[in-house]
Amino acid sequence: MTSSLSLIFFRAFFEPLFLTIFKRPLFNHFSLFSKTLSDNDRYFLEREIQFYKRLKPKFKKSFENKILHFLDRYSIIEQDNLTLSQQQKILIAATFSELTFGMNVKLQDSFDKIIVYPTAYFSTMNQDFHKGEFNARHKTIVLSWEDFYHGIKVSNDNINLGIHEFTHAILHQATKPRTKTFDYILFEDEHRKILNLLNDEKYMNSIKDSGFFREYAFTNSKEFISVVMEYFFEDPKSLKTKFPDLYQRLKTMLNYDENCFSQ
After folding, report:
1. 198: which residues sit within 8 A by CB, 6+ positions away?
2. Which of 20, 138, 144, 251 is the most buried (most CB within 10 A)?
3. 212, 224 in Cβ contact below 8 A?
4. Cα separation of 36 and 174, whole Å?
């Protein structure tokens, strides 16, 4: 039996049990076909992505592998005379890899391309300007580069367009009936628990009265999850202090492991 078949066999029999007991996938940083970035791109990531900079060396390799598989898997299409460098495209892939670092997910059923405009763009769907959106019908994520990059460079305003839109795509995929992978099962299970929290009027009033989350979070449950995910990555300490149960639900959803970090 080849190593790849052995892994498939092992996962099929043992991962469901492991997931049930420990509430996390058994494999999430193992790849038979691992890829690494060039030294130049690695130094660039160190400067731009704090999440990557904080990772222990062996997990940095996993992060790089996720970036390169993302770039192979999804098309990035520039609009309005925008030309993205390879390193700018790496930043888009890095944002997705940060959000899904504890997971092993492929989202081609939700989106297969990312369309990037230089700035906010006019959407013909609702005749208004947008900074970003997830369009399930067209399997597309659309981003304003200016606003996307703001989410990376400014890390203390709890606004991260890439995290927000990629969260929408994962939510869409996880709630599909035919989605059966262990990562999605765990994600959707915790998602339902968060929805139960939101249905508790007393709890929801405490969230609103705190003034902690920006108003857009209360548009609907999907926007709430996507906005709170931005807070999870930009200000996890405050989120954990103010709403520890919500923080824990998100942490379990993402299989977020603090032991991956060296600082």
Report:
1. 204, 221, 224
2. 144
3. no
4. 28
Residue pair 166/141 in contact (Cβ under 8 Å)? The answer is yes
pLDDT beyond 50 at 7 = no
Residues 6+ apart with CB under 8 A from 257: 24, 102
Paired tokens of 80? 């309005």
Tell me the chain's radius of gyration from C-alpha atoms: 18
Please report, as a single letter, which amino acid is at residue 151: G
Domain architecture of the chain: domains with CATH: 3-260 (1.10.472.150)
Give the whole-angstrom CA distance, residue 36 versus residue 225: 32
Q: Which of 30-34, 44-48, 109-113, 135-139 has the lowest mean pLDDT?
A: 30-34
CA distances from 254 to 46, 99, 177, 231, 247 (A): 23, 7, 20, 14, 11
Estimate to the nearest angstrom the gap between the alpha carbon of 187 and the chain centroid: 12
The 10s digit of each residue's pLDDT in 30-59 is: 555 567 899 999 999 999 999 999 999 989
pTM exceeding 0.90: no
Q: Which two tokens stand for residue 185?
A: 């099962």
Nearest CA-CA partner of 229 in 175, 167, 184: 167
CA max distance for the chain:
59
